[in-house]
Amino acid sequence: MRPRANRFVRALHGLRARIGAGEVPPPSEIAVAFGWRSDQVRERAISLGRTKVNIGRGFLGVQPAALFAMPVQRNGVDPLNGAAFYGYHAAVRWGVLVDSEGLTAFNSHWLIQDRWFALPTVVWEQIDQQQSVLRAFSPENMADGEPDRLALGRYPNPTLLQPVDDELVDRLDAWRDEALKSALSHSGVDEHLQILFAKLFVLRTIEDRGLAPQVTPLSAATDGPTTLQVRNLLKTFREARQHICSDLFDDVNIAEIPHYVISGIINDLYFPQKLSFTGARYNFSWIDSDVLGLAYEKYLSTILQPRPPTPQLDLFRESYRDVARISVRRAGGVYYTPTYLTKYLAGKCIDNFLRSAPDGSIPKIIDLACGSASFLVAAVDTLLDKFKARDPSKNWAREFIDGGYINGVDIDERQ
Q1: pTM of the prediction?
Q2: Among candidate residues 46, 78, 49, 51, the one with its CA nearest the CA of residue 68
């Protein structure tokens, strides 16, 4: 074990020398210093305000397990806030920020006094004395849960954040309850809400990913969390129908839903309820498509129906209805495949095809019980990785969709 520990320390000292010389090592090289292979790391650049950070996600199999972050530009926002906020969106709990001062481990799903949980910075001069802390972020120790044990041994009571998909679903379910409690009759309010949610979810995704800049942002449809600008919302839907070319926007019916509920939903798709620091706004370009699909699956896993209204005992108080929650999964025998399994199966199927198919062949993929299409999304992600390597200039996503290579069928009309 001693020679291995020495290699680890030497690698970190090598990083220190490069940073001291003014270099900005890529996150993959930081991860390699911690014992990860370069092919286990996927890189991207993020910004929060004008602060820019290079991020590398270290994968254990198909699951992202650790972040390695290197500030590129500091301007008003602490780079650790940017890295942790990205980790929250990307469903990666633990990360290490590396800069000229040292190495700071943080958790993107824990808070301490409304701030991201972070262990004390290991300054470069203390690397030799803090090996046990730093080695917790090797692949083997990450898989064994060592960062959790290490952190909870020192700080046993952090505030826990829900994963981003659960938080989104909880807020949307709260608005479903509110809308149905005030429904005058069972007029399909829940069905209308689910269709509306699908529209808003897609609009927030294309907005933050910059896929259709001609479409007016949803934020133009609200003046605060309770006031809806109906004309602006319908304008956004019209533009989406024109530029996204999806039949999702052909049928727009918001008359059955209280306007303050629609405004509240839109507001909650922009601003996290549990994060109070300045600039805390959801960035849907940071949320993987499979995480978004999982959120939608969870949202659809129940339907709500208003019960008969309670007797109105107070003349000046509005009558409310209780709401019955019905599990679609239980009633219909629905089972949602875990994300790690859909990624594994999609990758395995595509790899098997490409090994035996002629060069340049694109597999045709069909899922006969696709649900919210988590397997198909994983398949598209895998195909994009492989085919972009062949021709980075080609719009492969459009090729796969328009060419009829991706198909899904389901008996649930809401999927």
Answers
A1: 0.79
A2: 46
